[in-house]
Amino acid sequence: xxxxxxxxLEQAEASPxxxxxxxxxxxxxxxxxxxxxxxxxxxREMVNDELPALLARLHPDDRAYLAQYWxxxxxxxxxxxxxxxxxxxxxxxxxxxxxxxRQANGSDSLLVCGALRNISAARSYQRNADAFNARKNxxxxxxxxDLGGAFxxxxxxxxxxxxxxxxxxxxxxxxxLRVLENTSRNSLKLIRDLVAIEFLSGTDTDLKLDRVEVxxxxxxxxxxxQLGQGALGFHFAYTLPTEPVYANMDVNKFNQVLTNxxxxxxxxxxxxxxVSVAVEAVPGYVxxxxxxxxxGIPAASLPYLFERFTPARRPGLRGEPxxxxxxxxxxxxxxWHHGRLTVISTEGVGSTFTVEIPQAL
Length: 361
Known about the structure:
Blueprint: H1 3-14, E1 18-23, E2 28-32, H2 36-40, H3 47-56, H4 60-74, E3 82-88, E4 91-104, E5 110-118, H5 120-164, H6 172-201, E6 210-213, H7 214-231, E7 235-239, E8 246-249, H8 251-267, E9 274-282, E10 285-292, H9 326-336, E11 340-346, E12 350-360
Parallel strand pairs: 7-9
Antiparallel strand pairs: 1-2, 1-5, 3-4, 4-5, 6-8, 8-12, 9-10, 10-12, 11-12
């Protein structure tokens, strides 16, 4: 054994992650490091006997995914890591990240080497962060509409008093009315700018795609939207697939797209109207429909709707301003997911925005 190979073996033995070498010709594990025992609770000298039971613990939804990955790896086309879940009888499913590579061992033998890292804690932190972002986005929507609406009302009443009530120009009352008008206008702008900046900042970070169960990761943000819009007196409903459906998503960015589409739907839906989100699986794709019973979009504006600073932009029914960037950014994020964003709308009837992204095994 060379000094370099000995050094690699020493490092593998000292690693807290599971390192292995699998010989394709004999279909046997020819090396596994000491971490195998504490991580999987087995015996390294019996790893080949224990391998079938270990593979049987694979999450049912990950088996076809891993099998396809393995086939592609054998053809030498995979360099990315893959995440899989292992079920345990007395503990929640654990998530492992597999980093494999191929190594020719002579003319007729192929070795698959790799490392398995337990990333369950990191995935748990990510789920908590995504849930926090969902609650934050719902809170911002309430802040923008409820508190923003209150300041807008104060501004309108103040403007009415300035125009209709006779007060001396230099009086204390006139000064206070002007202060109240300016304060309410500036506060309303600050709130709406805060919400807009929060959404725009989401496109400044790198895209991080993970294979996720769509219903599981969207249930929390949709519930928060339902609670938030319900608190504002609006009607919001959603439906999710009854069976697990997987897609490669940046959960936080995708939630921002849904939140923005729902927020836009309520902007143009009169009081008492309903907005709904329906998620469905179709062959090869996952579709997300955001439907409203609003005023609809003029046919002449539809071709320009997704342009940056679109000429189709217009204020909401309650005076909500628009930057003309929201739908353009939604379209960009959807395209980052190798998907597409489309709209069907009829004036006086409502609009349906549809997002379609590829399914993952």
